[in-house]
Amino acid sequence: MNRIKCDIVIKNCLLLTEEFEIEENMSIAIKDSRIVAVDKKEVIEQDYISSETINGKHKIFMPGLIDAHTHICQQLLRGKIMDQLPMIWKRIMVPFESSLTPEDVRISSQLANLEMIKSGTTSFSDAGGMYMDEVASVVIASGLRERLRHLLWIMTLLFQKICYQQ
């Protein structure tokens, strides 16, 4: 029997099924950056030959996670407002976001994308912010799927105007 050529086989991993059950001794065949087969280790070994094999022992293969509401531009603010009293918008968040430069947003986006990739997130929806073109360029380079919005940063600017009139 002729085996199908692929680029990578990840062998001996765990698989989280649609029924939320764990199957052991599973393998994944990848060709041209696409998953072409997921099956028992023995089946993949029999049907595929790869130029690279990765041992997936103690790793779990599961559907990508989706973050339905995030703020990429606030990534650099993480940890600063955990113990703050109410009204953080006026005192902290609006001044912080209004001071961001395109470079700040790019760095914040790179950090957020890295954390999402490490946690298994494959898609996200951003609530919006300034310099979303910077966010978009980072997301494209990362391979994540996203839904970006500009609308909410307009609301932030209006809120900022209200806050600073007092």
Automatic annotation (TrEMBL):
The keyword Transmembrane does not apply. One of its GO terms (molecular function) is hydrolase activity, acting on carbon-nitrogen (but not peptide) bonds. Gene3D superfamilies: Metal-dependent hydrolases, Urease, subunit C, domain 1. Residues 61-133 form the Amidohydrolase-related domain. InterPro entries: Amidohydro-rel (IPR006680), Metal-dep_hydrolase_composite (IPR011059), Metal_Hydrolase (IPR032466), MTA/SAH_deaminase (IPR050287). Keywords: Hydrolase. Signal peptide: none annotated. It comes from the Bacteria. The keyword Hydrolase applies. This is Amidohydrolase family protein. It comes from Atopostipes suicloacalis DSM 15692.
